[in-house]
Protein backbone atom coordinates (compact mmCIF):
# COMPACT_ATOMS: atom_id res chain seq x y z
CA UNK A 1 0.00 0.00 0.00
CA UNK A 2 2.82 2.42 0.80
CA UNK A 3 5.47 1.17 -1.60
CA UNK A 4 7.76 3.86 -2.92
CA UNK A 5 7.14 6.04 0.12
CA UNK A 6 9.49 6.71 3.03
CA UNK A 7 8.46 6.95 6.66
CA UNK A 8 10.63 8.56 9.32
CA UNK A 9 9.51 7.21 12.69
CA UNK A 10 11.13 8.87 15.70
CA UNK A 11 11.63 6.79 18.83
CA UNK A 12 11.32 3.57 16.83
CA UNK A 13 13.94 1.43 18.57
CA UNK A 14 11.35 0.44 21.17
CA UNK A 15 7.65 0.20 22.00
CA UNK A 16 5.02 2.00 19.91
CA UNK A 17 7.49 3.49 17.41
CA UNK A 18 9.08 0.12 16.74
CA UNK A 19 5.66 -1.41 16.01
CA UNK A 20 4.74 1.48 13.69
CA UNK A 21 8.04 1.17 11.80
CA UNK A 22 7.51 -2.58 11.45
CA UNK A 23 3.95 -2.11 10.18
CA UNK A 24 5.02 0.50 7.63
CA UNK A 25 7.79 -1.80 6.36
CA UNK A 26 5.15 -4.55 6.03
CA UNK A 27 3.12 -2.12 3.89
CA UNK A 28 6.12 -1.83 1.54
CA UNK A 29 7.28 1.54 2.84
CA UNK A 30 10.95 2.44 3.20
CA UNK A 31 11.65 3.32 6.82
CA UNK A 32 14.12 5.46 8.75
CA UNK A 33 14.45 4.38 12.35
CA UNK A 34 15.50 6.70 15.17
CA UNK A 35 16.08 6.23 18.87
CA UNK A 36 18.54 5.01 21.46
CA UNK A 37 19.57 1.52 22.46
CA UNK A 38 22.15 -1.20 22.01
CA UNK A 39 23.93 -0.67 18.66
CA UNK A 40 23.90 -4.39 17.80
CA UNK A 41 20.18 -4.74 18.55
CA UNK A 42 19.33 -1.65 16.51
CA UNK A 43 21.35 -2.92 13.55
CA UNK A 44 19.61 -6.32 13.86
CA UNK A 45 16.23 -4.52 13.83
CA UNK A 46 17.26 -2.42 10.82
CA UNK A 47 18.65 -5.30 8.79
CA UNK A 48 15.77 -7.62 9.79
CA UNK A 49 13.11 -5.18 8.60
CA UNK A 50 14.91 -4.65 5.30
CA UNK A 51 15.30 -8.40 4.71
CA UNK A 52 11.82 -9.44 5.85
CA UNK A 53 9.95 -6.83 3.85
CA UNK A 54 12.27 -6.03 0.92
CA UNK A 55 12.36 -2.32 1.73
CA UNK A 56 15.16 0.13 2.37
CA UNK A 57 15.68 0.78 6.07
CA UNK A 58 17.97 3.43 7.55
CA UNK A 59 18.77 4.59 11.04
CA UNK A 60 19.59 7.89 12.69
CA UNK A 61 20.73 7.97 16.30
CA UNK A 62 19.89 11.68 16.59
CA UNK A 63 19.18 12.95 20.09
CA UNK A 64 15.96 14.81 19.40
CA UNK A 65 16.44 17.20 22.30
CA UNK A 66 19.12 18.83 20.10
CA UNK A 67 17.86 20.90 17.15
CA UNK A 68 21.17 20.55 15.27
CA UNK A 69 20.98 16.74 15.56
CA UNK A 70 17.41 16.87 14.21
CA UNK A 71 18.60 18.96 11.25
CA UNK A 72 21.33 16.37 10.51
CA UNK A 73 18.77 13.55 10.68
CA UNK A 74 16.47 15.38 8.26
CA UNK A 75 19.42 16.00 5.90
CA UNK A 76 20.19 12.27 5.98
CA UNK A 77 16.56 11.38 5.19
CA UNK A 78 16.58 13.90 2.32
CA UNK A 79 19.88 12.76 0.79
CA UNK A 80 19.49 8.98 1.24
CA UNK A 81 15.70 8.58 0.90
CA UNK A 82 14.50 11.63 -1.02
CA UNK A 83 12.82 13.01 2.10
CA UNK A 84 10.09 11.78 4.44
CA UNK A 85 6.66 11.25 2.87
CA UNK A 86 5.40 10.09 6.24
CA UNK A 87 6.68 11.61 9.48
CA UNK A 88 5.77 10.01 12.78
CA UNK A 89 6.71 12.19 15.74
CA UNK A 90 6.69 9.52 18.38
CA UNK A 91 9.78 9.73 20.62
CA UNK A 92 8.86 10.65 24.16
CA UNK A 93 9.73 10.14 27.80
CA UNK A 94 7.83 10.48 31.05
CA UNK A 95 8.72 11.74 34.51
CA UNK A 96 6.41 11.78 37.51
CA UNK A 97 6.69 14.24 40.44
CA UNK A 98 4.60 16.96 42.10
CA UNK A 99 5.04 20.37 40.45
CA UNK A 100 6.89 21.86 43.41
CA UNK A 101 9.43 19.02 43.33
CA UNK A 102 9.60 18.63 39.54
CA UNK A 103 13.28 18.84 38.49
CA UNK A 104 13.70 21.79 36.12
CA UNK A 105 16.07 19.77 33.92
CA UNK A 106 13.38 17.06 33.51
CA UNK A 107 10.81 19.69 32.54
CA UNK A 108 13.20 21.10 29.91
CA UNK A 109 13.99 17.63 28.56
CA UNK A 110 10.35 16.57 28.24
CA UNK A 111 9.28 19.80 26.55
CA UNK A 112 12.28 19.56 24.17
CA UNK A 113 11.70 15.90 23.26
CA UNK A 114 7.93 15.42 23.50
CA UNK A 115 6.99 18.78 21.95
CA UNK A 116 9.73 20.96 20.42
CA UNK A 117 11.33 18.09 18.45
CA UNK A 118 8.06 17.66 16.54
CA UNK A 119 8.13 21.33 15.58
CA UNK A 120 11.65 20.94 14.17
CA UNK A 121 11.00 17.72 12.23
CA UNK A 122 7.72 19.13 10.91
CA UNK A 123 9.18 22.44 9.78
CA UNK A 124 11.99 20.59 7.98
CA UNK A 125 9.75 17.91 6.42
CA UNK A 126 6.91 20.15 5.23
CA UNK A 127 8.60 21.81 2.22
CA UNK A 128 9.33 18.41 0.61
CA UNK A 129 5.81 17.14 1.34
CA UNK A 130 4.25 20.29 -0.13
CA UNK A 131 6.41 19.96 -3.22
CA UNK A 132 5.29 16.34 -3.72
CA UNK A 133 1.73 17.37 -2.86
CA UNK A 134 1.48 14.39 -0.51
CA UNK A 135 2.52 14.01 3.10
CA UNK A 136 1.24 12.38 6.27
CA UNK A 137 2.33 13.57 9.69
CA UNK A 138 1.29 11.50 12.68
CA UNK A 139 2.02 12.82 16.13
CA UNK A 140 1.91 10.40 19.03
CA UNK A 141 -0.17 12.20 21.60
CA UNK A 142 -1.75 10.49 24.55
CA UNK A 143 -4.94 10.48 26.57
CA UNK A 144 -2.84 13.11 28.36
CA UNK A 145 -3.21 15.37 25.31
CA UNK A 146 -6.88 15.65 26.33
CA UNK A 147 -7.04 15.18 30.09
CA UNK A 148 -4.58 15.52 32.96
CA UNK A 149 -3.31 13.34 35.77
CA UNK A 150 -1.51 14.67 38.83
CA UNK A 151 2.31 14.63 38.93
CA UNK A 152 2.74 14.60 35.14
CA UNK A 153 2.99 18.36 34.55
CA UNK A 154 5.66 18.34 31.84
CA UNK A 155 4.21 15.36 29.97
CA UNK A 156 0.62 16.63 30.03
CA UNK A 157 1.78 20.12 28.99
CA UNK A 158 3.88 18.75 26.12
CA UNK A 159 1.09 16.48 24.86
CA UNK A 160 -1.50 19.29 25.00
CA UNK A 161 1.00 21.45 23.08
CA UNK A 162 1.42 18.69 20.51
CA UNK A 163 -2.37 18.76 20.00
CA UNK A 164 -2.06 22.44 19.11
CA UNK A 165 0.86 21.88 16.75
CA UNK A 166 -1.12 19.06 15.08
CA UNK A 167 -4.07 21.34 14.34
CA UNK A 168 -1.93 24.19 12.98
CA UNK A 169 0.05 21.77 10.78
CA UNK A 170 -3.21 20.27 9.52
CA UNK A 171 -4.54 23.68 8.50
CA UNK A 172 -1.30 24.79 6.84
CA UNK A 173 -0.92 21.49 4.97
CA UNK A 174 -4.55 21.01 3.98
CA UNK A 175 -4.40 22.55 0.50
CA UNK A 176 -1.03 20.95 -0.25
CA UNK A 177 -2.00 17.28 0.13
CA UNK A 178 -0.54 17.11 3.64
CA UNK A 179 -2.52 15.67 6.55
CA UNK A 180 -1.61 15.81 10.20
CA UNK A 181 -3.29 13.94 13.04
CA UNK A 182 -2.73 13.17 16.69
CA UNK A 183 -2.97 9.57 17.86
CA UNK A 184 -3.97 9.54 21.52
CA UNK A 185 -3.30 6.15 23.13
CA UNK A 186 -4.32 5.17 26.61
CA UNK A 187 -1.99 2.85 28.49
CA UNK A 188 0.18 0.63 26.31
CA UNK A 189 2.48 -1.94 27.94
CA UNK A 190 5.85 -0.67 26.68
CA UNK A 191 9.17 -0.06 28.48
CA UNK A 192 7.94 3.51 29.20
CA UNK A 193 4.96 2.19 31.18
CA UNK A 194 6.98 -0.66 32.68
CA UNK A 195 9.18 1.98 34.32
CA UNK A 196 6.11 3.66 35.78
CA UNK A 197 4.80 0.33 37.10
CA UNK A 198 8.10 -0.39 38.84
CA UNK A 199 8.35 3.15 40.30
CA UNK A 200 4.77 3.15 41.56
CA UNK A 201 5.12 -0.32 43.07
CA UNK A 202 8.19 0.83 44.98
CA UNK A 203 6.71 4.18 46.05
CA UNK A 204 3.41 2.73 47.27
CA UNK A 205 4.58 -0.66 48.54
CA UNK A 206 2.38 -2.55 46.05
CA UNK A 207 3.01 -5.56 43.83
CA UNK A 208 3.34 -5.10 40.07
CA UNK A 209 -0.04 -6.80 39.60
CA UNK A 210 -1.69 -4.44 42.10
CA UNK A 211 -0.24 -1.41 40.29
CA UNK A 212 -1.46 -2.69 36.92
CA UNK A 213 -4.98 -3.51 38.21
CA UNK A 214 -5.59 -0.74 40.73
CA UNK A 215 -3.51 2.19 39.45
CA UNK A 216 -2.66 1.92 35.75
CA UNK A 217 -5.76 0.26 34.32
CA UNK A 218 -8.01 2.06 36.79
CA UNK A 219 -8.31 4.86 34.21
CA UNK A 220 -8.99 2.53 31.30
CA UNK A 221 -12.62 1.28 31.27
CA UNK A 222 -11.84 -1.83 29.19
CA UNK A 223 -9.28 -2.84 31.86
CA UNK A 224 -7.00 -3.93 29.07
CA UNK A 225 -3.81 -2.40 27.72
CA UNK A 226 -3.85 -1.00 24.20
CA UNK A 227 -1.38 -3.04 22.13
CA UNK A 228 1.43 -1.56 20.06
CA UNK A 229 0.10 -3.49 17.05
CA UNK A 230 -3.31 -1.80 17.38
CA UNK A 231 -1.65 1.62 17.31
CA UNK A 232 0.52 0.61 14.35
CA UNK A 233 -2.55 -0.61 12.45
CA UNK A 234 -4.28 2.69 13.18
CA UNK A 235 -1.23 4.60 11.94
CA UNK A 236 -1.24 2.61 8.69
CA UNK A 237 -4.96 3.34 8.25
CA UNK A 238 -4.28 7.07 8.70
CA UNK A 239 -1.87 6.88 5.75
CA UNK A 240 -4.39 5.07 3.53
CA UNK A 241 -6.73 6.73 1.02
CA UNK A 242 -9.72 5.93 3.27
CA UNK A 243 -8.32 8.44 5.75
CA UNK A 244 -7.69 11.26 3.27
CA UNK A 245 -10.28 13.52 4.91
CA UNK A 246 -9.10 12.91 8.46
CA UNK A 247 -7.06 16.00 9.27
CA UNK A 248 -6.25 17.86 12.46
CA UNK A 249 -8.03 15.23 14.54
CA UNK A 250 -7.23 14.10 18.07
CA UNK A 251 -7.92 10.40 17.74
CA UNK A 252 -8.35 8.38 20.92
CA UNK A 253 -7.36 4.75 21.13
CA UNK A 254 -7.73 4.41 24.87
CA UNK A 255 -10.37 1.82 25.77
CA UNK A 256 -12.76 4.63 26.72
CA UNK A 257 -10.48 6.49 29.16
CA UNK A 258 -11.29 9.97 27.85
CA UNK A 259 -15.00 9.17 27.46
CA UNK A 260 -15.36 9.30 31.23
P1 LIG B 1 9.43 3.58 24.79
O1 LIG B 1 10.20 4.00 25.99
O2 LIG B 1 9.19 2.14 24.54
O3 LIG B 1 10.09 4.21 23.48
C1 LIG B 1 10.57 5.52 23.45
C2 LIG B 1 11.45 5.71 22.23
O4 LIG B 1 11.96 7.07 22.22
C3 LIG B 1 12.69 4.80 22.24
O5 LIG B 1 12.97 4.39 20.91
C4 LIG B 1 13.79 5.73 22.75
O6 LIG B 1 15.09 5.33 22.36
C5 LIG B 1 13.38 7.02 22.08
N1 LIG B 1 13.99 8.20 22.70
C6 LIG B 1 14.04 8.53 24.01
N2 LIG B 1 14.74 9.68 24.17
C7 LIG B 1 15.11 10.08 22.93
C8 LIG B 1 15.85 11.20 22.43
N3 LIG B 1 16.33 12.16 23.25
N4 LIG B 1 16.06 11.30 21.11
C9 LIG B 1 15.59 10.33 20.26
N5 LIG B 1 14.87 9.26 20.67
C10 LIG B 1 14.65 9.15 21.99
O7 LIG B 1 8.05 4.38 24.91
P2 LIG B 1 6.61 4.16 24.23
O8 LIG B 1 5.67 3.80 25.30
O9 LIG B 1 6.69 3.36 23.00
O10 LIG B 1 6.28 5.70 23.88
C11 LIG B 1 6.32 6.20 22.56
C12 LIG B 1 5.42 7.41 22.51
O11 LIG B 1 4.09 7.02 22.86
C13 LIG B 1 5.80 8.53 23.47
O12 LIG B 1 5.61 9.79 22.84
C14 LIG B 1 4.79 8.38 24.59
O13 LIG B 1 4.55 9.59 25.25
C15 LIG B 1 3.58 7.90 23.83
N6 LIG B 1 2.56 7.23 24.61
C16 LIG B 1 2.86 6.08 25.28
C17 LIG B 1 1.86 5.47 26.02
C18 LIG B 1 2.10 4.21 26.78
O14 LIG B 1 1.22 3.82 27.56
N7 LIG B 1 3.20 3.52 26.60
C19 LIG B 1 0.57 6.03 26.08
C20 LIG B 1 0.33 7.19 25.38
C21 LIG B 1 1.33 7.77 24.64
UniProtKB/TrEMBL annotation:
<comment type="similarity">
    <text>Belongs to the short-chain dehydrogenases/reductases (SDR) family.</text>
</comment>
<protein>
    <submittedName>
        <fullName>3-hydroxybutyrate dehydrogenase</fullName>
    </submittedName>
</protein>
<dbReference type="InterPro" id="IPR036291">
    <property type="entry name" value="NAD(P)-bd_dom_sf"/>
</dbReference>
<dbReference type="InterPro" id="IPR057326">
    <property type="entry name" value="KR_dom"/>
</dbReference>
<feature type="domain" description="Ketoreductase">
    <location>
        <begin position="5"/>
        <end position="177"/>
    </location>
</feature>
<dbReference type="GO" id="GO:0003858">
    <property type="term" value="F:3-hydroxybutyrate dehydrogenase activity"/>
</dbReference>
<dbReference type="InterPro" id="IPR002347">
    <property type="entry name" value="SDR_fam"/>
</dbReference>
<dbReference type="InterPro" id="IPR050259">
    <property type="entry name" value="SDR"/>
</dbReference>
<dbReference type="InterPro" id="IPR020904">
    <property type="entry name" value="Sc_DH/Rdtase_CS"/>
</dbReference>
<dbReference type="InterPro" id="IPR011294">
    <property type="entry name" value="3-OHbutyrate_DH"/>
</dbReference>
<dbReference type="GO" id="GO:0032787">
    <property type="term" value="P:monocarboxylic acid metabolic process"/>
</dbReference>
<dbReference type="Pfam" id="PF13561">
    <property type="entry name" value="adh_short_C2"/>
</dbReference>
Amino acid sequence: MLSGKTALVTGSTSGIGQAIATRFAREGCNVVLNGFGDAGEIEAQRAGLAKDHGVKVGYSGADLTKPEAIAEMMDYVASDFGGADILVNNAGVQFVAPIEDFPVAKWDLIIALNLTAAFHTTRLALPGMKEKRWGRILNTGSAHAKVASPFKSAYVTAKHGLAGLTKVTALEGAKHGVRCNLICPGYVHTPLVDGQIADTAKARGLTREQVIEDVILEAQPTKEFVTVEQIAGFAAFLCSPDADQINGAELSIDGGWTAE
